[in-house]
Amino acid sequence: MRPAIALALLMVFIVSFCSAQNATELKEQLAMEGIMALFRDDAEYTAASQPYNLRYIVEPLAIAYPTTAEQISSVVVAGVIQKLHVVARSGGHSYIANGLGGTNGSLVVDLSQMKNITVDAVTGNAIIGPGNRLGDVALALNNAGRGLPHGRCTYVGIGGHSGFGGWGFASRMWGMTLDNVLSATVVLANGSIVTASENLNEALYWAVRGSSASFGIVASIEFRTHAVPPTATAFEFTWQMDAPTASAAFIEFQSWALSGDIPPEFGGEIGFLKGQAYGQVEFAFLGNYFGPADSFNSTITPFFSKLPAPVTANVTQGTWIEALTAIAAGNMNTTTQPDSNDTFYAKSLMAPQAVPLTNASMTALVTYLAEVGFNSSDFWHVEVELYGGNQSAINQVKFNDTAFAHRDTLFTFQPYASSPNLLPPYPDSGFGFVDGMISTLTLNMPSDWEWGAYPNYIDDRLQDWQRRYYGSHYDRLRVLKSSVDPLDTFHFPTSIEELVSF
Questions:
Q1: What Gene3D superfamilies does the entry give (predicted)?
Q2: Fold of 232-470
Q3: What CATH number does the domain located at 3-110 have?
Q4: What percent of the chain has pLDDT over 70?
């Protein structure tokens, strides 16, 4: 046998032996603490370790299911003893399987058993467990007459959503989900359980509102909630447009957003989907309006009057929860049906309000979608979410107040392409196709155009992700990471990197 082959086989044996030894010792430790966990030889392991994005195959060493902060602490300490990377999983919707560690051999802290929701009848503040999904949070808060700004994908977990951003149609009115975090109970890498708030562990409080999973496991979150508006509207309009008409329509939408005429009660997005013929796209305009029902039409008229008659029009007016339900992607009560999976690639681009998109950039993008997109077999769409406008609560938060580094955004683009049947394998051509959606924009903007990327639409192929996701906050995050997690226990492919000293 050749020496190189023998050495390789020896290394495989050593890794396998150490992994098995780690698993045995970890299983004993968790059993002593009375903590349920699944390991690779358990029948339920395969289903439990399946990522949301089936493009990934990740095998964690174990998946633990704590029910209290104290049990989370025990899991973390056990992981440190075994020299394992430890990761949190809230709803499990990470685009790149970060909730499973991103690579094999991690210890997953699955938070699905921590689903408490309590609302203080006096302050309206809510304590929410990180295992709750957005639909269930919305229903529970609504029962108390309260609401939060959050996304419309109901099966997304509140832990990751609030830890990295949390945009929804109420965000122009109430901010990002993380802007409503008053405090968090966090388990650190040394096993200590601390409170992070404006007055306690202030640096950690700053960090968990923008990059929480790199610094600890969040065991519970205290939110400022809001009285739900008395009426709410859900709307969705669609058109079939040729590329020039669709790009011009988007520029009209941008002009409206910059005009200062959009009230904070309005939240919306533009969608681009495959058209019915080459050279066409489907153009969608959808969202929620939380102002008086009788002012909805006058609110959208400055933009709507510039468009041809829509092909489809759906407007639902009613209560807050009825409007959320009408526009939701998934059941609001997530216990009635299992979560789904997809096989996809997605990117993001956060366009600054100070330098609006040019006609050339939008013409290039929409032409690309109408031509290259029409010929693609992928199931694709592009969301363009409205963040800005003069009255947006998102951009009124000071840049240094949270680790979320995007306080001057006008739009967030999310290009997203699934395999034709939503199952593996993902076609190699899909990566270049989605990359092209971003490059058609950036190559037609000034060379010094500073765009960002949204951390909840995480992309492990993104170059210079540190700057795109975190901007100038990244150095500050690295300093804190080195302080509170010196062994890099909370590690995944896009976790905050420690400072390296020589």
A1: 3.30.465.10, 3.40.462.20
A2: Vanillyl-alcohol Oxidase; Chain A, domain 3 (3.40.462)
A3: 3.30.43.10
A4: 96
